[in-house]
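Write out the 3D structure for:
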Amino acid sequence: MNIGQASKASGVNAKMIRYYESIGLIPAAGRTPAGYRVYTDAEVNTLRFIHRARQFGFPMERIRLLVGLWRAHQPSREVKQVALKHMAELERRIVELTAMRDALKELADHCRGDHQPECPILRDLAGSKTPGAAAQAA
């Protein structure tokens, strides 16, 4: 199938397919005599695998590792270790994002949101504790 068909079948856009090819995540596609890329069912299955791994938020280096484990039919314990490490990182990011959301909510709750320039959100982003401190420091 051509790149458009492979894209539709895998859920990966053509630009990303070319990128995955350029970084060696998938093998270089075969070419027609006219130079068009052609993809096999196996390559489309690999693209689906990559697409699903991206949906889980795996970074590219881990996707490369997972594709290698999948192709080599490695024991599931190795795959589980990769997944558990990724889960731990996701948990850490969730904690960080929750803290950021809570801090921003606190600032937004204290911002009047009116026509006045005083805003605790801007004051915090400027690193100031008191109104106008950033302007006085300048």
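The helical segments are 3-10, 14-22, 41-55, 60-71, 76-110, 120-125, 133-137.
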